[in-house]
Please model this.
Amino acid sequence: MTGLLILPDWLIISARQQPKRGWGVRIEADRIREVGPAKTLLEKYPLDEILWAEQQVLSPGFVNTHTHLYGILAHGIPLTKAPDGFWPFLKDFWWPLVEDRIDLPMLQAAVEWQCQQMLQSGVTSFYDCLEAPGSLPGCLEAEAQVVTRHGLRAILSFEATERVSQENGQLGLEENCGFVRDHRWGSLIQGMICYHTTFTCSANFILQAFEQAKNLGSLVHAHCSEGTYEPGQALKNFGLRPVQYYDRLGVLSPGMLASQCVQLDPSEIALLAEKNVRVAHMPLSNCEVGGGIAPVPQLIQAGVTLGLGSDSYIDNFFEVMRGAFLIHKAAGLDPRLMPASQVYFLATEGGARTLNLEKVGRIEAGWKADLQLIAADFPTPEGEWNLYDQLILYRNPEHVRMVMVDGRILLKDGQMGTDYDPQARLSIHAQAERLWRSAR
Model:
């Protein structure tokens, strides 16, 4: 069988290794079949198609471990009064003016736009958490229709919550269970069990979600300590901080994906590491809601599996990496924190591990062909010693030249393929205005 040779100037196997100059890959179907020096590949496979990528970096695709694709609809919404804290952000703005008003036309327009943005930003895999209690049932399949057309690797879930009613909470769990059954692990689109937080879900509801996930072989996602509100409520209601409360419930495990994890104390960091809980870090949206700065260097030092997410606040994934690269240096008063190679690992292989995606996030024989080519026309010379810094500090979506998912090229020469909606901007504008009118 003939394959495809991709021959760049630079190849990133894993961000835990130095980049390779003059190396390339051989792709067959959905897999990377061989990695090695370009000269060797050309001699060994003379009949293969060749994609020459001079002055470009071949990198694993980015893995966005936490999105709210519908959230783009809220960007720029007219407000008479800005929220003055995390709880008012939820109670007075996000829940009544955004989440509770999302319907299927709004959702599908948002997913269409966001899929295009992610592809242009080098994202090949993502996890989305849908919070729209009025869109049940059928909202995850509506999302999946759009994502399938774009060809991205995705995990989709509905954030079940009892804040509206117990009945609505059960509808949310049923939505997740049905989607997980219909989209099994290993396929391009998968499901995940998901609930909101300790302050919108009862203990029985949380235990029910974990039991369902155990029966279905799924991870369980929850937001955790995004701001000071949840730890305060947990101490008040349970006498324990949120991670300690989860430990008492017996649900802390490798099967839990906790997003945000901003306001943690040292005992909680130790528990997350001990129980092998997965964590998704959103450096930029934590700033937006005034939640604080997550103790990411401490989580990494403790050995917690961790990836990066956009939270659909700023979906330029290079900006997300820059946030992680810079914010923790300032918070820790130490420029050595979060070196570029560490951040790049979190954006690729670390994110894949966080989402339990098998054979994703690394360019190695036998792994999934989820790749991107990034222009390497940096303002200063690049080398093994500075390539990760150059990519994080000096690249943006306009520098992404090619994106491949599962062996299929979805973006080439910086241009989208035929599977996108050219009217996406008009659609998202129309649906955002519908949402904004209903919120007035």
Q: What stands out?
A: DSSP finds 16 helices and 18 strands in the chain. The CA atoms of residues 74 and 98 lie 7 Å apart. The two ends are 60 Å apart (CA to CA). The longest helix spans residues 104-120.
